[in-house]
Structures are given as structure tokens and as C-alpha cells.
Amino acid sequence: MWSDKKAIDFELIHDDAVNFLRSYEFTGKELVYCDHPYLRETRKKYARIYKYEYTREQHIKLLEVIKSLPCMVMISGYESKLYTESLKGWHSHSYKAGCHHGIATEWAWMNYPVPVELHGYRHLGDGFRERERIRKKSNRWIALIHANASIHSCSRSIHRAYVHRHKIPGLAR
Length: 173
Known about the structure:
CATH architecture of the largest domain: 3-Layer(aba) Sandwich
Number of domains: 2
Radius of gyration: 26 Å
Largest sheet: 4 strands, mixed
Helix content: 25-40%
């Protein structure tokens, strides 16, 4: 599984994304995740909540920059006409997340293909109850597989003992 591999290089930058993204020399092997101030008009509470808010123009500039990057990009936010139209053709996924005023539907847009293999299955399912149901079902299947393996092993031992004891031609190995 790819999650078992160790990261070779990692750098955390705390700066304005646009400045950094414009100056960075990409190799194409990077993943850029943008968790920027969400578009103000999409928030339930329209009031200023970030120390450094983004204007609509800054959102447009950020979208232009990330669309030009030669690497994998993921950006999160609330659904809006600006993001939906600007990131047309990108994969998107909605999910429930806690925010300042309860639970909200957030979106993640990605410019890379949807992974075929998950890095882990701990969060598989829509919510706690479904994850619990999946975990219990998975545990039942694992127990059944182990039980069947034990039965199979036992039956093979009985078969070998029977063939050996009765010296059945063609079956003895």
C-alpha cells in the first residue's frame, strides 16, 4: 500500500499562496493543497472570520494560478458559481464538515484522476454510523475467512491422513 512508503521531502510554507505558487519551480511530482479563506458570499455567516480575508478578485487570481500549475492540485471550499465554472473539468467531491456554525457541505476540487486505491479505509462511509456498519461487516468477513481457512486446513489434514492410511493410489503425494 502506498501509505506505507515514507515521504522523501516535505516543506510547510506559511505565506500567501499566490506569491509562493508563482515563484516555486515545480517538477510535476508535487501535490498542492489549497485551504484558503473561503469565498465570503458562500459562508452562512457573512462576517469577517479570517485574519487575512480574500477578496473576490484574489479568489479569481488564485484560481488562475492553480489552474496553470504543472502538478496535482486540490482546493477546498463551499460550492459557488465562481468555483464550479472556473474548475470545470476537475473532479469534485462534497462532504460534511464542522464549521463555525455547525455542519456545512464543503467541496474538494482535484485536477488529477480519482485514485483507484484508497490510501486507507478508516474513513470509508458517509458518517459515523455507516463507517461503524462497514467496520462490523468487515470484521465479520475477516472472521469468516479465518474460520474457513481453519476448516480448509483441517480438512486437508484429514484428507492427507486418510489417503496415507489407506494407501489410495494416485492420491498419495
